[in-house]
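Ticket 4471: requesting a sanity check on a complex prediction with iron/sulfur cluster. Repro inputs:
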Amino acid sequence: MIDPFGRSISYLRVSVTDRCDLRCVYCMAEDMTFLPKSEVLTLEELERLCASFIGMGVRKIRLTGGEPLVRRNVMSLVEGLGARIGAGGLDELTLTTNGTQLARHAEGLVRAGVRRINVSLDTLDPALFTSVTRWGDLAKVQDGIHAAKAAGLHIKINAVALKGVNEHEFDRMLAWCGEHGFDLCLIETMPMGEITEDRTDQYLPLSLVRSRLRQNWTLTESAYSTGGPARYFDVAETGTRLGFITPMTHNFCESCNRVRLTCTGVLYMCLGQDDAADLRAPLRDPAVDEAGLQDAIRAAIARKPKGHDFVIDRRRKTPAVARHMSVTGG
Ligand code: SAM
Ligand code: SF4
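Returned structure tokens:
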């Protein structure tokens, strides 16, 4: 699949649920209304859509959410997709999780063929963790991370950089990740969905964070890439990597290879734009066969925009896109 700007689309992110057991302050409002179950695709429907994408050239799938591991029976989808790794056309199946349910799923993920996961963790301070997530328990997440490590999963920790909240912690987090052999990736906040807080208060440019970290760590730019938007640096002191995802200070759209499917079967061609294609209707229409479904996907890819135009400033109070990150999963 080649989009109008010549980019080859080989990476599909699938939000398997909009629900979550946490309410991170930058991601969700406290009183979120979730989708009625009737609107959500079954796991079998999600797998069929993924299979169509794989048939059209998608080589990498990341399951995300909401929190993917809170969806009932999600492991059946993981196993179904895992079986397509290799000869089935898929190179990699990965997952982004908040880690709360990892302790019980880590081994199952490995058995299904998952080798790498991203765990979102913004702080190592238990009280701060509870306040950023509104009620989360850091110990539970750390148990999950340790179980994932013990099961042999390669772990990348994703932390959203929040001004005045966790900016004093990145040295400590980098050291902790180094001790455990985890990569660390810092992310700028993106203006997605109404939240309770003011985003201009949260936004912290990562260029600033990087120059601060350079005072204590030897960072060498690396050619490493996971096919995502992060730019990586090797950390000489730890032997691990430090990544930066900078949608605000550095636009990464020119190399975008991905599209995002929601749990209701809506395909977003860009994280930062509202245009989307409904794939649920053709999926559920008995008159539409596999070729028809692929036509619908192809028509959507033909509308993939050049890029996003996220802005966070005091004059523009409304989010760049109305939907929350939990709809498409980042
Ligand atoms: N619940 C899972 C988790 O937290 O890893 C997966 C879904 S979550 C929406 C995916 C990623 O998006 C997380 O790393 C989260 O920190 C990030 N995220 C959520 N809202 C964001 C925002 N407004 N700006 C930047 N990153 C955001
Ligand atoms: Fe849930 Fe992930 Fe959003 Fe936090 S970032 S509220 S864990 S979906």
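Notes from triage: The chain has a mean pLDDT of 93. Leaving this open until the requester confirms.
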